[in-house]
Amino acid sequence: MQRGRRSPCGGPLPRRLLALSLLVSSLVACAGTSQATRNRTFYDWSLGDGSAAFEREYPKLDWPSNLAHATFIGVSVLDGAVRFSRPRNWRIQSASSRPAEPFIHYVSPNAYSFAIYQRRDPPRDGWREILARYEADVAAVGARIVGQRVPMATYWGQGRAYTIERDVEASKSPLQSHSREMLIRSKNRIVLVQIVYQEPNLAAVDQELLRALETMEVR
Amino acid sequence: MSSTGRARELRSAAWVAGVVLSACAGSALSSKTEDEARTLVPVPICVQRLPRRATPGSIVSLAAREYWSLLLPAFEPRASTLDLTLPDCSGRPTLGGAAGTLGKRPVNPDEIVFGSGPDGFKVAWLPLAAHEALRTGLLALLRQRQEVLEVYALGVYEGSVDGSRFSLERMGPALVVTAQDEHCRGAEGDRRCDSSCTVYLMGNGRLHARARFPVDHSVDARTAAAAGSAEYRFSASAEYRSDGVALSEKLSVLEQGRGEVRSIDLQRTLRLEGDRLVPSTESLWSQTARQLGLPETR
User: Fold this and answer.
1) Which of A91, A122, A199 is closest, CB to CB, to B203?
2) Structural domain count, chain A
3) Quick one: which of A106, B46, B58, B163 could link to B89 by a disulfide (CB 3.0–4.6 Å)?
């Protein structure tokens, strides 16, 4: 009791303070992440010099390897988490090193975009949880799943493929985007590979996309 | 408070903090960033940073020569020339490579013909300089954003600088570029115009000319060395639908002193089949021109 009365400057207070500070610091840490996640300008890079910060060369995947100016260049993205061989003519549209959710987004002169996003899913979760979260995300933004859960694999990683449609507001009637989206997992992470296009299908660019996916290593 | 009680208090606080921290760090909730890319349609084939920043709430007004530089990086502003052997902004051969063997060509950088569409879309035609009335040049579908110019498709168009007009139509969810080339003769009451429309479909970042139909034509058989003795006037209007283009055509035959002695109406379609526009039947004007023995129009 005596110690209790001394509490404003006695022993129990530092402990309470310590306990309180644990709680506060955990909440602050959480709030900080959330703030950073929302602060796109802080993390995003687009159109300027600086692609080296988001994409590094990985010459082992250059193809054809005997040409100085290979058609496909090997790259390492998401801080080394993903490697693949991409057409040389893609341009980086935007990229982010945002904690837990880095991404890189390319556009092709053949009018499609190709993006890789790291997902926040815990890598040990089962497919059921991972797919359910993704499907809920798709529904939450008003997009439609028109094909789902098709098993697929890349060079290093196994996945499930989806076909998504989404209406985009426009003055006369909505424009429609189509996307082929693949959740690909390794032991350490889950990534979403997304190809957005406006054509009825991707037949005209099959070959270049096939190589990008065939060579993809999710580490 | 006993030492056991204090320890319990500390343990429970640490447990709460742990739960909060783990919920935070391990949160599987996505920020759904991937949806932004889904809304980026049409997908740009090149994105060019504007030469200067706009003040907040305004948009940069680009000069004609700046479009040349943004769409065709091989444009040399000082010399007003364009090196056709170098690629366009998408990295593909300029003018589809067809003109690549011509090397450097002079251009008039103030010459650009624009057509506007909804949602900020623009169609731009950049004709190469030439002595002929018919000019060839780059056709582009683009949209200017706050800091960048997005280019969605590039193609080639040939026409006259004064008589060409461009617009953007919708065929269901698809964007369609139309180019109308008009040539007029005569003055005031006797003014007669011939025009035709080319329909471009978008495919893999290219504008493909997929159909061409007559819009206005007029011929006086008595003065055109044609078989007949009347004036033939043709006009057509187009309605763009999700399955193609519905065309309403009208041909009037006029005789001097008697006015219209005959008229024919025809409803036909250009049906969208894959990436083609297939006509349901031949145009009234094509049939008439053949019967009158007129040379084939462009």
Assistant:
1) A199
2) 2
3) B46
